[in-house]
Description:
The protein is of the alpha/beta class. Helix content is about 45%, strand content about 20%. Strands 3-2-1-4-5-6-10 form a seven-stranded parallel beta sheet, with helices on both faces. Strand 5 (about 115-120), helix 6 and strand 6 (about 160-165) form a beta-alpha-beta unit.
Amino acid sequence: MDAKLMSSLPKLxxxxxxxxxxxxxxxxxxxxxxxxxxxxxxxFFSEEIQTTNCDLTNKEDVIRMIKKFKPNYLLHLAGxxxxxxxWIDPISSLEANFLSTLYLIxxxxxxxxxxxxxxxxxxxxxDPQDISALTHPYSLSxxxxxxxxxxxxVLYKLPIIIAKPSNLIGPGVSNGVCSIFAGKxxxxxxxxxxxxxxxxxxxxxxxFIDVRDVVNAYETLFKKGSSGKVYNIASGQSRSLEDVxxxxxxxxxxxxxxxxxxxxxxxxxxxxETENLTNLGWKPLIPFxxxxxxxxxxxxxNTKI
Length: 305
């Protein structure tokens, strides 16, 4: 792209750009007319968009990056999102989710306080008024991340929006349960593994939302979202893991065995309120079945022969 044209485009920093959501977000916002700067810790390269490396847990690194790019927008996707790892090393989870966010928004406060910011929270946050509801260090780190973001919006009037997506699905490398199932099915089809899928509880309920719908929601929030508000991003439909597996069975000729550790524990359907977001004109567009087709296609194409 012409350098003069690039300089006239709104500048967007996307942290965690090499991750599952980050790659989709880079594509979405580049096509939407933003000058995207893709941020990752190490080793990310793209011929299509500008990239930069930054250790977000290093305050000086963050300050240098913000001074260099002076973004108009920040989409903060980076962080540690593994509950198990948070038990083993809680400090690194707090650094990755809480401190990195503080360094980013505090740097922007001093260098470019008008930058519109989206901080991505988690459905696994807990109510800080009820400490007994805390279940793991990851929940603590994400709760603190959102609290500090909301505090800086109140105290310093920074234009910060909180987005809380539900369970993300879609094509690409992901640790989500739908991707795990698709990866196993692709391996079964190529006869790499036994024809068995194991789950802890078939009746476990989830609200699944396609990652491409989610990045569309982020664009809507940048354009129309209100500072200080929390926006849930969800499909509005609860599905059990059994529903997921039965849909996958329709997409493959493999007759696999299903093992569940829990057989009689029925979970309540999940209800997530998305009115704040749908009032802005957003709605999910990609059907669940299409998402699963795209996930399975991705793993079929990327499972080695």
